[in-house]
Design brief:
Number of helices: 10
Radius of gyration: 22 Å
Shape: globular
Structural class: alpha+beta
Largest sheet: 6 strands, mixed
Strand order of the largest sheet: 1-8-5-2-4-6
Order of helices and strands: EEHEEHHEHHEEEHHHHH
Distance between the termini: 48 Å
Strand content: 5-15%
Number of strands: 8
Number of domains: 2
């Protein structure tokens, strides 16, 4: 798997995909496979296979801000709505608990730079519809629900009830709906200049370097993101995992049990892996994937059965 430094990214037009470290080996073996549902199924996600990604560093930062907003609303739900919804004025002590959850979660993830193709025959098209925004986020009059608007952040676009804007935001883009596999040669793992690949390290580095790309008049929109970074930076300084000389978390050994569980959660079956292998071999004759291995193993098992049959005769 190739790596790319944060300094070498196209910070305006690069496409970044976010996933768990324990998916790394599976993706290296099979490519990045479109899934339906997965860890965070929302609305119609569980019915539509796709790959989510963000565009550019501003899209990355907006996605982290949105992540905090969604996690906060999950916290409200688990608290049986004993605290305010975000749009009513979020509870700051509850948000601190959200920040801690995000801190630990981002230590367990990493980013890919993905070479997506755009266009009619490509992986996605600009202007494609956000299914959730179009189908589940508005009332009968076409007005966005206040909670959903808050969760999407003030930088998202809704249009008017008469002229709705349901296009994907740069923080929440996805490939065309349907089966799709991005081969490994179109993926690169992002790392900082000092070789750290975990998502938390990447986020802090990108924030420090590119936060000023957000126009000053929009700074108020990122209060939640800014406060998360303040919280995370303090935790990071005293975190033994990031002490000098400690190995990169993102390169740690894969937990095979967690990898298997993630594949089950994402509905990545042997059949899907085999299909990904076929696509990989069609696009790259030199490809070796788990799909190819599965096909090879099936062939060998059939051959063994034929040999056993011949010997018995």
């Amino acid at each position: 798997m190739e790596y790319v430094k944060t300094n070498d990214l196209d910070v305006d037009n690069g496409f970044f995909h976010f996933t768990r470290i324990d998916n790394r080996q599976s993706i290296q073996d099979n490519g990045l496979i479109a899934v339906a549902g997965g860890e965070n199924p929302a609305s119609s996600d569980k019915y539509h296979k796709t790959i989510y990604f963000v565009k550019g560093v501003v899209g990355m930062l907006e996605a982290i801000d949105v992540w905090a907003r969604w996690e906060y609303e999950e916290y409200v739900k688990k608290a049986n709505h004993r605290i305010n919804h975000g749009y009513e004025g979020y509870d700051k002590s509850a948000m601190l608990e959200v920040y801690e959850k995000m801190y630990m979660d981002f230590k367990d993830r990493f980013y890919y730079l993905v070479d997506f193709t755009e266009g009619k025959n490509g992986d996605f098209e600009y202007g494609d519809i956000d299914i959730k925004k179009a189908a589940y986020s508005r009332d009968e009059q076409g007005k966005p629900y206040p909670k959903v608007m808050w969760m999407y952040g003030p930088y998202s676009h809704w249009g008017t009830p008469e002229n709705q804007n349901n296009e994907q935001e740069i923080w929440n883009m996805n490939t065309k709906i349907g089966e799709r596999t991005i081969p490994v040669d179109r993926l690169k793992i992002i790392e900082t200049e000092n070789g750290r690949t975990d998502a938390l390290s990447i986020i802090l580095k990108m924030y420090d370097k590119y936060r000023d790309k957000v126009k000053p008049e929009r700074n108020w929109m990122f209060e939640i993101l800014d406060n998360f970074v303040i919280y995370a930076r303090e935790r990071y300084k005293n975190d033994i995992d990031y002490a000098d000389g400690m190995p990169d978390i993102g390169r740690r050994k894969i937990n095979l049990e967690k990898q298997k569980k993630l594949q089950e959660t994402n509905h990545i079956t042997p059949r899907i892996i085999a299909q990904a292998g076929i696509q990989c071999m069609q696009e790259n004759p030199g490809c070796i994937s788990d799909g190819e291995k599965i096909a090879h193993n099936i062939f060998e098992n059939l051959k063994e059965k034929d040999n056993d049959k011949t010997l018995s005769e």
